[in-house]
Design goal:
The complex is a heterotrimer of chains A (65), B (620) and C (215).
Chain A: H1 7-29, H2 34-52
Helix pairs in contact in A: 1-2
Chain B: H1 7-32, H2 40-59, H3 63-69, H4 97-126, H5 136-169, H6 178-186, H7 188-201, H8 213-216, H9 220-248, H10 261-293, H11 313-347, H12 354-367, H13 383-395, H14 397-411, H15 420-443, H16 445-451, H17 455-485, H18 491-517, H19 534-564, E1 595-597, E2 612-614
Antiparallel strand pairs in B: 1-2
Chain C: H1 19-57, E1 61-63, H2 67-92, H3 96-121, H4 139-170, H5 180-205, E2 208-210
Parallel strand pairs in C: 1-2
Chain lengths: 65, 620, 215
């Protein structure tokens, strides 16, 4: 094991994602364009990919979990 | 030995058992939901999905994984199955990449013969005007089947080259995921059976299966959709495996730019197969759902006000060609890699511009993603797109030109020898040149508008595929035959094969293009005598039979030489590549000791240079 | 998927010294890369569906879907991702009890998501809820069912994967050092969530709702 992530950071990222989802919803009812909505979605996806799917283990963790 | 102990037999039993069970389940479900018992689309689709799963369970391609889900560990089995003759391992699930490579290659050759025979059938019809023995519907079925069976054979042939050679060339024991490798092969077999069954029901649109025609035709379409979806799944899983193998399992000292050049070609191919294949799977799935459930993806529906609230047929063309154009690079890139691999060996000179050749494969693969619209110049999409796709398509000529100049540079001043593999390599270059030079004519929108859907396209396509795949594939078969069997093929028969096939192909290709410019359309069973293409058509048919006959000579040669051929020794071609430094035929565990790489791969003729260092003394 | 193995493959690679450990590490690196390549491949499938959506609907129309349900199922899937990450953290710390709770919670949230889509969005049980769309009437229904259907298929396979992993853990598999089965299951689940992150605005938020009378 290289980095042991704690429970706390998971909850924080979850809250940020929830906030961004609510932001998307209000962007939509105020008719803010498709491109910006997709931008926020991309931001959410990056958060999930980095913190939840720990993509960096592909090139950092030498075989550890 | 009981015949039931062969995996293939058990798989086929599983296929037909699954078919019956699946059809019965659909019928029962329909009755339970209060519908009529028989609806051929739904019942066949349900039955065939179940049949494919039945095959995989019967052959045992998933048994290890199913055990893992229950926590049972399964060590990899090596060697032929216990208590059975060694040949039986080729007819069942085996995890050795060399066995799987042979399975791919032989199945590919078998399909090449089947698909080629279909072509001979409808070529005979075309030899003269008027309808002689094939009714137009049957003609179209043969023509469409020729296309998909031959394309499946190419995909399997590419799989054969890649699976057999990549681990050997990078000195790896096996592929990264041996079970996935076996699964990716075996999933092809039920798909092929399904594809062949579709012939009984017929389908008549040509391989492209454009809607709305493909939404209206007989139920054979559903089988084609399912079969191609399944073969696509095999491509995806196989290429995933190859990419991981090449990126993670190279020996010490083999940087990416010291890989054998064929590996670069396979890497570029795998990138296309991994990604673009999903789009044809999706497109055929959508067609299947539109036929079964009436989901309007491609068929327009107009409401009372005349607004289209349904789908658009042109969407299919976009999805289809997003795969099917890059797919031709899947077919040709490994072949071009074989050419680059073989030329330095037979010219005894370094490969000219190794890095450029390596990167040109990647460049072709990546540019290939941006060119699909050149198949749609006449489809009625926005006219400005023609310019965009024309420019991107012509860009492909640049990396392809890099390859041509590399081949010329390699040959220049070399001490050439001409055994059969070298002949086929040179034949490949000549044929690919015909295909390549006819390409820009079709890539240019202004000329394509006149040539679209004519025999010129047929001529261009067959020249690129024969030059890019079939000739190099035969070169590869002859070249690596001594490594696979330990014996040499018959050189006289090999040369006879070449001297029948190559002029035959030149004739066929040029005659097809001529017929096209004279106004002969594709995919029609009959043509107007006033076109004046009768003689040209007769030539194409005769050339087709000559090519077919020459391929039979090769198959005879391959079968007999395995028994009576001269023992070839470890390295008959004096190659520097790792696979030639080990015994022929390759033992069960290819490399007794890990190898390491100490030099450049293609420094032929440079004194004192070496590429592979085998651990342990006494190796030569 | 070749993903699930917990066993090192002794012959997959050449390693002369401490073969067991090195092989597991090497196999793990390959498994990770293989799974991510699978994700890249699948991205083209889901990207193709998104392209279909924009091709047929344009960026300025969308079907009339129930916004409340959209927000609820999206949130549920998001929470399931959080609980899945907590489950993985738990197994990394060797806390099997917390792992079991979190991973079953994830499966439960997954089932709630499925129920939300199938019962409410699809209207599979008209006695409970009358859906707005059918797959066959127009392009809106067809694309909604194609996108949610392909996604639901992945959610279902994710739930099956979770149950297999949970059962293996219950029988004593996986340790803080070796739990590729859990890791692959977890990142597969997150991947399905990432897909929905793009599908949610594409289906519910972008464009103006178009009302089409059934015919």
């Amino acid at each position: 094991m290289l980095k042991q992530s704690g429970y706390g950071i998971v909850i924080v990222i979850g809250l940020v994602l929830a906030a961004l989802t609510v932001l998307e919803y209000f962007m939509a009812i105020n008719h803010i364009g498709a491109a910006l909505l997709m931008l926020v979605a991309t931001l959410k996806a990056i958060l999930v990919i980095y913190f939840f799917m720990h993509v960096s283990r592909l090139w950092t963790a030498e075989g550890g979990h | 030995m009981r015949i039931g102990s062969l995996g293939l037999v058990r798989g086929l039993v599983g296929y037909f058992a699954g078919l019956i069970v699946g059809m019965a389940v659909v019928v029962i479900l329909r009755l339970a939901l209060g519908m009529s018992a028989w609806d051929q689309e739904a019942v066949w689709v349900g039955g065939l999905i179940s049949a494919i799963i039945g095959f995989l369970l019967g052959v045992g391609a998933m048994s290890d994984w199913l055990k893992w889900t229950r926590g049972i560990e399964t060590p990899l089995h090596h060697g032929p199955p216990a208590g059975k003759p060694a040949w039986t391992r080729y007819f069942g699930v085996d995890y050795n990449h060399k066995v799987i490579g042979i399975q791919y290659g032989v199945t590919g050759l078998f399909l090449l013969v089947v698909g080629g025979s279909f072509a001979l059938v409808f070529r005979t019809e075309l030899a003269d005007t008027g309808i002689s023995f094939l009714q137009p519907g049957t003609y179209n079925t043969f023509l469409s089947m020729h296309a998909w069976v031959a394309l499946a054979s190419i995909l399997l042939g590419v799989g054969g080259i890649a699976n057999y050679l990549v681990p050997l060339m990078i000195g790896a024991e096996d592929m990264a995921f041996p079970r996935l490798n076996a699964f990716a092969y075996w999933i092809n077999v039920p798909a092929i059976v399904t594809l062949l069954i579709s012939m009984l029901f017929g389908w008549d649109s040509g391989w492209t299966a454009y809607p709305p025609l493909s939404l209206l035709g007989p139920v054979g379409y559903q089988m084609v959709f399912l079969a191609i979806f399944t073969i696509g799944l095999s491509s995806i899983l196989g290429s995933l495996n190859l990419i991981v193998t090449m990126l993670m399992m190279r020996p010490k000292g083999m940087t990416l730019f010291r890989m054998p050049i064929l590996c670069w070609a396979i890497l570029a191919t795998s990138i296309i197969q991994l990604t673009a294949t999903q789009l044809i799977g999706q497109a055929f799935l959508m067609l299947s759902f539109e036929r079964s459930l009436g989901m309007p993806f491609f068929k327009p529906i107009y409401d009372a006000a005349g607004v289209n609230i349904g789908g658009q047929p042109i969407l299919f063309q976009h999805l289809f060609w997003f795969y099917s154009h890059p797919a031709v690079y899947v077919f040709v890139l490994p072949g071009l890699g074989v050419i680059s691999e073989l030329l330095p060996v037979f010219a005894r000179k370094p490969l000219f511009g190794y890095r450029w050749v390596a990167l040109s494969s990647l460049a072709i693969a990546l540019v290939g993603f941006l060119v699909w619209g050149h198949h749609m110049f006449t489809s009625g999409y926005q006219p400005y797109l023609r310019v965009v796709f024309m420019i991107s398509t012509l860009l492909v000529a640049v990396p392809t030109g890099v390859k041509f100049f590399s081949w010329l540079g390699t040959l220049w001043g070399g001490r050439l020898i001409f055994p059969t593999p070298m002949l086929f390599t040179l034949g490949a270059i000549s044929v690919f040149l015909i295909g390549g030079l006819s390409g820009p004519i079709l890539a240019t929108a202004a000329t394509d508008l006149f040539l679209h859907d004519t025999y010129f396209v047929v001529g261009h396509f067959h020249a690129t595929i024969f030059g890019g795949f079939v000739f190099p594939f035969f070169a590869a078969i002859y070249y690596w035959y001594p490594k696979i069997t330990g014996r040499m093929y018959n050189e006289t028969l090999g040369k006879l094969h070449f001297w029948l096939m190559t002029p035959g192909f030149w004739l066929m290709s040029l005659a097809q293009m001529t017929a096209g410019t004279m106004g002969m359309r594709r995919r029609i069973a009959d043509y107007d005598p006033a076109l004046g293409v009768q003689n040209v058509q007769l030539l194409v048919t005769i050339a087709g039979f000559v090519i077919a006959f020459s391929i039979l000579i090769m198959i005879y040669n391959l079968f007999t030489s395995a028994e009576i051929g001269v023992l070839a020794g470890n390295n008959p071609w004096r190659s520097r590549s790792p696979e030639w430094q080990i015994p022929s035929p390759v033992p069960e565990h290819s490399y007794a000791r890990p190898i390491s790489i100490v030099g450049e791969p293609y420094d032929y003729g440079l004194a004192g240079s070496s590429y592979v260092a085998m651990a342990g003394a006494g190796d030569d | 998927m070749a993903a699930i193995t917990t066993a090192a493959q002794p012959t997959a690679l050449h390693h002369d010294t401490h073969a067991g450990h090195d092989n597991y590490a090497a196999q793990l690196r390959m498994n990770r890369l293989g799974l991510w390549l699978f994700f890249i491949s699948e991205a083209f499938l889901f990207g193709g569906l998104l392209a279909t959506r924009f091709f047929l609907w344009g960026a300025d129309t969308r079907p009339e879907l129930d916004q409340t349900i959209g927000l609820i199922v999206t949130s549920v899937l998001l929470i399931s991702s959080v609980s899945m990450r907590l489950a993985e953290t738990a197994i990394e710390r060797g806390n099997r009890r917390a792992f079991s709770i979190f991973i079953l919670l994830t499966a439960l949230f997954g089932l709630i998501f499925l129920a939300g889509v199938m019962v409410f969005e699809w209207g599979l049980f008209p006695s409970i809820y009358q859906g707005h769309l059918t797959p066959w009437d127009n392009k809106y229904g067809a694309v909604v069912f194609a996108m949610t259907g392909m996604h639901a298929l992945h959610v279902i396979s994710g739930i099956v994967f979770i149950l297999i992993v949970w059962n293996l853990a219950r029988k004593g598999s996986f340790s803080p050092e070796r739990h590729w089965g859990v890791e692959s299951c977890a990142i597969y689940w997150h991947y399905v969530d990432v897909v929905w992150i793009f599908f949610y605005p594409a289906l519910y938020l972008i464009g103006n709702a178009v009302h089409i009378a059934a015919h």
